[in-house]
Amino acid sequence: SQPEDRKLTVFAAASLVDAMDDLEATFESSHPGVDLVISTAGSQQLAAQIRDGAPADVFVSADLRQLDAVGDQLAGEPRVVATNQLVIAVAPGNPSAIGGLSDLAARDLVLVLPAPDVPAGAYARRALLSAGVEVTPDDLTPDVRGALSKVALGEADAAIVYRTDVAARADEVDAIPIDAEVAVEYHGAALERSPHPELAGELLDFLTDPETGGAILADHGFSSP
Amino acid sequence: MTLETHVRVERPDLTVDVALSVDPGEVVAVMGPNGAGKSTLLAGIAGVGPLTRGFVRLGGTSLADVEGHTDLPAHERKIGIVFQQHRLFPHLSVLGNVAFGLRARGVSRSEAQVAATRWLERVGVADRAHVRPDQLSGGEAQRVALARTLVVEPEALLLDEPFAAADPSARSSLRSVLSEVLAESPRPTVVVTQDLVDAASLAARVVIVERGRVTHDSSLADIAMHPRTRWAAELVGVNLLRGQGHADVIDLADGGRIVAVEAPAGRCFVAIHPTAVALYPERPDGTPRNVWPLRIEALEPLGSRVRVALGGEIELVAEVTPAAITALGLREGRQVWAAVKATEITTYPA
Amino acid sequence: MTLETHVRVERPDLTVDVALSVDPGEVVAVMGPNGAGKSTLLAGIAGVGPLTRGFVRLGGTSLADVEGHTDLPAHERKIGIVFQQHRLFPHLSVLGNVAFGLRARGVSRSEAQVAATRWLERVGVADRAHVRPDQLSGGEAQRVALARTLVVEPEALLLDEPFAAADPSARSSLRSVLSEVLAESPRPTVVVTQDLVDAASLAARVVIVERGRVTHDSSLADIAMHPRTRWAAELVGVNLLRGQGHADVIDLADGGRIVAVEAPAGRCFVAIHPTAVALYPERPDGTPRNVWPLRIEALEPLGSRVRVALGGEIELVAEVTPAAITALGLREGRQVWAAVKATEITTYPA
Amino acid sequence: MRSRHTPLPVTALAVAGVVFLGLPLLALLLRTPWDRAAELLGAPAVRDALRISLIASILAVAVAVLLGGPLGYVLARGPRRLRGALRALVLLPLVLPPVVGGVALLLAFGRRGIAGAVIADATGVTLPFSLAGVVMAEAFVALPFVALAVEAGLRRVDPGLEQAAATLGAPPWTRLRRVTLPLAAPALGAGAALAWARALGEFGATITFAGSLPGVTETMPVAVYLELQGDPGAAYVLSILLLAVSVLVLGVTGLRVRAGR
Amino acid sequence: MRSRHTPLPVTALAVAGVVFLGLPLLALLLRTPWDRAAELLGAPAVRDALRISLIASILAVAVAVLLGGPLGYVLARGPRRLRGALRALVLLPLVLPPVVGGVALLLAFGRRGIAGAVIADATGVTLPFSLAGVVMAEAFVALPFVALAVEAGLRRVDPGLEQAAATLGAPPWTRLRRVTLPLAAPALGAGAALAWARALGEFGATITFAGSLPGVTETMPVAVYLELQGDPGAAYVLSILLLAVSVLVLGVTGLRVRAGR
Ligand SMILES: Nc1ncnc2c1ncn2[C@@H]1O[C@H](COP(=O)(O)OP(=O)(O)OP(=O)(O)O)[C@@H](O)[C@H]1O
Ligand SMILES: Nc1ncnc2c1ncn2[C@@H]1O[C@H](COP(=O)(O)OP(=O)(O)OP(=O)(O)O)[C@@H](O)[C@H]1O
Ligand SMILES: [Mg+2]
Ligand SMILES: [Mg+2]
User: Fold this and answer.
1) For the segment D153-199, what is each residue's pLDDT rounded down to a tens digit?
2) CA B258, CA B254: separation in Å to the nearest integer?
3) Which atom number of ligand 1 is nearest to the Cα of residue C140?
4) D182 and B149 in contact by Cβ < 8 A?
5) How far apart are the first and last CA of chain D?
6) pTM attached to this predicted model
7) Phi, psi of C323 (to 5 degrees)
8) Using CA atoms, how far apart are residues A52 and E129, in angstroms rounded to an integer?
9) Which residue from B124, B241, C53, C115 could staple onto C8, CB 3.0 to 4.6 Å apart?
10) Three-state DSSP class for D79?
11) How far D258 CA sits from the closest chain A CA (Å)?
12) What interface predicted TM-score (ipTM) does this complex get?
């Protein structure tokens, strides 16, 4: 096949879905003849698919564990392509007047956290621990967006989620920044099976370039590494 | 409690239109060809079939009246019906089937079972009380259906060929049971039957329905004397001919003529009882004024007699003794002379 | 093709054990009380019911043999059966029902429909060809079931009360159809029936099954002369008594004695034809040696005669003319004298 | 029953079906770390999840039968012109992705939902984050199975038998209880079994509407999902436990149902 | 049909059922951004997802009927001693959390699965991440509905009618096609409808086994899931589209099935 007709399949963690749409357009316009196909799902599901030979060229995971799970199929070391921040999501206008993690300990507050088994949950727990706050969550959602959705629908008063999640639904929730510094990192790597290793590399460069991909990620609330 | 009803059901192929009034304790036998509308009539009365027009009144109370927009549901009509296809509940035991109506009325389980058992005994299937209906023979199922309806003591009874599957001996004992029941508590009763003996022994009045209309409504004896349709004549085993009367002679519609003692002027029926048809190997010389050479089409035993179907110039059925069959050497296909005395011929206007 | 079979079915309440051999073209009528095992017998032969022991052979080929471990499935037996409950396919039209067997044999749709229509005409329900079975009357359904079985021209025919729902007129024309069919292609045929006229007109041989066993297997005339069970005697309308014979006197089991011309020594049957029972308002003086004062229990018309059930010292049925009823003023409950001549009494060993 | 041979194509396809379902089960069993099974199953968290799953799914089936049964009746017997709309409504939980179903439940019965707000104001009770919420979410997804099974079952009941019951004096309600429902029992049983299995395996609507707090609202499927993130072997063990429990329960009740007929 | 009044308790409970299902639908409709509906539904990605969903679910039902129907037959009529194991197998996809189902499918039919590896070596064909994979995943979850419905349907068929067919010379296969299946049709139809709806709404097993490649394996529920992350309004629109399509399809086929009876 001609070099113009190259197809590059990116397996990306679900939380990247909106950013990926924009990244796709920009990358394709700067790489004529390249068709970027974005497949998004939970990092664990993507890892399982890759283990089973899914036709992926690049894997961007929210969870380093899942990258490790397919470590033998990666071409080169994983790179940090973006970082994210934990925030407290509250209803617009912050009616419960939450100022930080310490306010989450209030008894009558309906608090939702991501389950500790998923990366966001692990990060949240670490943040609470380092802030020395003890909370009694009303729900531990198996996925971050579920936690956010409960705040957006008014069911919960507060949830710890990624900043990028809040950015996507800015009209429904407000974000209260968390002081505790916890590094939430998205790692990306090319896969050995990729027929276009150099193009995969170009994409990873693109993602980490603060001028191009990085700028788009920043638009969606991510930070550059 | 009199049952008064007029059932009119309009179907694409058939309109059933029957008016009937049955006194308490009276039994009316409804007979008629297959597909005449007998079951349709009963369903209309009981409230489980369509009613295009008409009414049902029981003891003066209106149960249904299409014009008056009354239409009591079946469970409030207190009319018992034994369906032609039994319709036993397949998920209940025989006992459960018979106890069903009482249980539905709130009678306690044990009381209902006692009553049900008594009725099963009366109809002679008490030994099958604990099996499911699909393990019953045809005749047993029919008896259970009868018991199931009788046990609730309905205010009127509709029975659709209730003895059709009963063996001859059971048939006569079931007839007795029914007569007893009706004697115990008189109620209007309609029995559809294809059996002349049933009709004769149960009902003083026979209604014959043909193509949805009543063609006869009188005693069986009267119908036997003056049948007005081919089907009725065949039923009572009488030869029915149709013709044009002048003084004592009738010109038959199918050709041929008959001499009677007297005949109505104009279109009339001629009824000849099979026992009045005498058979001779040779042309008889005596008094009979009606003599035809005919061919024996079929021989059929009936009780202690034999029916001989004759064909040729006219169609006749004769009834003779088995002895005569042997003596005259009668057999199918043989040519014989049939003679009927003028005095034995009944004529009446059509 | 002869049908030879021995069907033994063991059920908790009843063991059916019947051996039967039917010649090609022969019609055997099977009669018997409800629940005697008639339908069970037919199902065993056709391969749609249990067979504890026994065999079925048709034209020398073994279709089933419990001991020999043969058990041809029903669809390979080529035995046609008309079920007592019709069993029409509810999802097919009447035409579809009748065409079913031919279609299953690979006959083209149009050919099958032509043949089916011809058979529907023969049994007289061609006008209902396009309705579903649930829109048929009882008699119509039965005729469709008959047509459905006949159309496939099975090598043996089993008919389970095939005319039970037919009206009297239809009944005799269906009998003719059946006779024609059997004349066209002779095959062993078994007809279960509760109707003496059916049995007499269709079958030269009658097998009576009671409680699973054959009690009679001969001509109807013979059974009428020498019934051996109460049920058979009632069927043929003969008075059957049981007793102990000494020269010309029989001591009845139920008390009383009867004088005949001669009697077998020891346990014997006494058969008295109802026409041989003469009734008198007063004690007759003439020759009859057997005279009893009895009570009239019931009166039942039968054809051109009337049956009079008598009770008292012994139980008897008499058959008299309607004229005699009027002349003697006979009615239920009246006391009469019944007399039977010794020469009219048949006796035979039990 | 004689003359009931299974036709050959049926047998062949059934074998293919067994392979299709059996291979994944076999693969799962082969991958299951049996040596850790005892330890995993003994964990209090697992026992909690199993208990919540069983209680909630049984209550959910009860609700589904209570509300879905009558809906099935109306679908089969009710006014013809209502049927279209009713059928659409009944299909809703079936085709709606479960998470969306959960969102819809929150919009209706949540603290701020159109009915939930009224209830909360009046009684102070909120359904989410409680066992009642789990039951509600599971009943929501299970209801269609009951309704559609009841509809199919009722369509097969011979109206002649109901008429016979009516002529014996049985009013509609008695007829329903003593004739119609018993005759529709096999279909009803199948529907309830499907509904129960579906409720037991429910995941998306439950986590969205009721949450998944261990010991309160966390059901087995949620536990399995979470284990899958880090410890797939444990997830397999729990899955097989779920399967075993459901086979056991359905086997026992199925036997009871069949014996009672 | 006369004397078919709906008993009062049935009506009351049916109304409660309508409220239970109707309020969430109503709430969802109220929250749906109708002004954006046209734009969203016009998007090529949505049309792709809808097309894939329809094609895959229809093929999946075909597979489920083909394999599940015979399994249902064997459950109802087959050797008694096989039934327990068979029933457990049939319940598997129903109670297994769908994601685990997807994993099990990968373990069996994936490139390195116990059967998949053999197939891949022999033919070079791999099932996951293709439309065939979607069909397989959906067929896997839909199969129990068909099998259990067929079982219930067959149990209600009067064996007397099958016997009658046999005496008319119909061999088992003809009997099955011309008598048994038509008589079981209502149950079968209900089963196929449930199976189709389930296949259409399938998510967990599909995304795990077949992936979510836009234009290839991304089905509507997957699209809804992904939209739910950032744009719930869009997810509601897509959900309602899914509901509308399924009501339409089931309405049309349902009418056909009923008219044909
Ligand atoms: N549900 C129905 N829909 C349409 N036509 C019907 C229906 N039921 C019966 N019929 C037709 O109406 C006519 C009358 O049927 P009905 O059952 O009343 O006859 P019947 O007099 O009882 O006959 P039989 O002596 O055979 O029982 C028949 O021609 C029958 O085919
Ligand atoms: N499937 C069955 N299981 C158990 N018992 C049965 C079954 N079918 C019939 N029976 C019983 O076996 C006996 C014989 O039944 P069968 O149907 O052969 O009688 P039949 O002679 O045909 O009677 P009928 O004249 O009433 O039709 C009956 O007592 C019946 O109750
Ligand atoms: Mg009738
Ligand atoms: Mg019988």
Assistant:
1) 888 889 999 999 999 999 998 999 999 999 988 778 888 888 998 89
2) 12
3) 26
4) no
5) 17
6) 0.87
7) -60, -40
8) 10
9) C53
10) coil
11) 40
12) 0.85
